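User: I'm curious whether this sequence folds into something compact or stays loose and floppy. Could you predict its structure so I can see for myself?
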Amino acid sequence: MSNLGPAFTFILAMLFRLEKVALRSSSSQAKIMGTITSVSGALLVVLYKGPKVLLQSPLESSEANWIIGGILLFFAYLLFAIQMIAQTLVMEIYPAELMVALFYNLCGAMVSAPVSLILEFDLSSWMLRPGVAVVAVLYSGAIQSFMTLVMTWGLHLKGPVYIAIFSPLSIAIAAFMSAIFLGDSLHLGSIIGATIISMGFYAVIWGQSKEDERVSSNGKAPLLEVEDCEE
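Assistant: Here's the prediction. I'll summarize afterward.
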């Protein structure tokens, strides 16, 4: 479902005029078709599980939980796309990556703390004991902070669509790690959906690369000419 992020980001970027689309351009057509293909593949993953093709998981969820989880993830990645658009707009006004990343993590902690206390009111669960729990907390905190800084820097340089199109890489990593450490089952619907999503992903990448080539070949010369005229 994380592959819906690029589709949502591309649509929102068009609405906020952060991404230009020319319907007669092959690159724009590839990005539009890739977005539609990614959404179709993600819906297939949610609505069709199919038979198991790899491993037998002792923790199986019901069909109702499978669909509800997909719906919740749908809205989660929609909000994530909105966050990237908003962060890009903030970077245009205040291009300070470190400060933006700092306030991003700070606001996230302020929002998640009361929600966590409401959902887990047993104070004994909040006690960190030596072992994997401490390592996991420290690791996630450090990686999350570094990821936020890198993402903010990338949004400033390349824009939201370019950053979002790399999220499908999480499919291969998540499938590999969950199969090894969690014994998770791999279903036929997930494989077919992931294949369709990958096709859309590479179509968007191809369209984005063509637009970058066009901008680099045509966009820099006029800027130099304007600067020379002003001097």
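Summary: The CA atoms of residues 128 and 180 lie 26 Å apart. The two ends are 51 Å apart (CA to CA).
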